[in-house]
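Reopening closed ticket. The problem is back. First fold of the pair:
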Amino acid sequence: MGGWKLEVGKMAMYMTFPVALFHYFNQPQYYEKWVTDMKQELYPPESKSKHKEFKDAIKKIQEKQEMKMLKAMEEKN
């Protein structure tokens, strides 16, 4: 078939390909960029206005629930 030269070539390819990919993808600058980009994508910085809107919505829901509870207590008495 191909002989020992083909086998040596295949073995070199089998060993070189994963090592080359490992070397390429584990460069510090690529790793730093990937980690920081992924962190910002998963945990975007919060804005003050969004935080205030969220708190206001929670307060509004709590007030509605309290009013329902008060009405239910008045009806029982």
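Second fold of the pair, where the issue appears:
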Amino acid sequence: MQIKGINPEERVVFLDYLRIIACFMVIMVHSCEFFFIDGDSIGIRNASDGFWVSVVDSFFRSSVPLFVMASSYLLLPLKGNNTEVFFKRRFVRVVIPFVVWSLLYAILPLCWGAVSLADVKSNLIQLLTNFGAASGHLWYIYMLIGLYMFMPVLSPWLREASKRGLQLFLAVWFVTTFWHYAKLIVGDLYGECYWNEFHMFWYFSGFIGYLVLAYYIRTYIDWSLKKSLCIGGTLFIVGYLFTAIVYYQRTFTATQLQELELSWRFCSFNVVFMTFGAFVILKKITFQGKWLYGIVRQLSGLSYGIYLMHIFLLGFSYNLIGGHFSTPVTIALVGVSTFTRCCILAKLISYLPGSKYLIG
């Protein structure tokens, strides 16, 4: 039977676990950047670093799509026609904290001498059009706001769409997840050219597919734990191996970061495999033990704040740990210590009046 909607206030247990896991995954992804990025260029120092980055970072590439699917699973289709209430809630919980932390990333580095007053001025001007140099992770919020803006358009169709209709949409979307690989072979495709990037499948591509996929899973997929582990685990492993192997091979040939990170694109078929596999497995989590789920539930509510602040603490963790351990141990320690510090700081901030304007 088709499920037409979920009350956004209703507690969906596995989503609490998913948010924390996805948040940790994002931090682990960024912990790897010290070993392959040098400014805007490739900064891989040796083959060992390239190997460990491909192994570790590739494993966590489904982090952002999982976040997107968590939002869609709970919100879509929007209840009723009152989009004004929907946008007001998103503005308070998402946009205001996003603006505050954008300003903090632009200004605060002046306090410890990382930037000059001229840099601060330049950073603030940059914020009028895009995220700043010190807050690259905030690209995700721009994308998320765009998805929120489209949800009122998408919702009426989801209410009426049949299972077959959803499958056809997802099939076309899945075709687009091969786009960047196909372009390596044949170049521009289906109307794409230098004066028109809006090719035939443009409007079916991107993160919108994850919105529909989450809705489809919630509505039509209720597999047993065994089936979820079998199918989900297989897809995750296949997607992970492709992601890691392609990345590692390109560490020897790529000359630019965008070439190196080809298989890491969030809307590529291999990451879709990983995301779908992880999601259907995590969906089976129902454990609500007293102390564990209590902690998970609290951290789930703080996950947006953790995401917003973690870049500040990531560099601090690396400066303390970097150079003292092997590459994989350093990545793990930086990720775990940053995540732990962010959880503590977000919890402390939550006690402040008006904390929702800081951490959502």
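Update: turned out to be a display glitch only; the data is intact. The longest strand covers residues 37-38. Residues 13-161+215-359 form one domain. Please close again.
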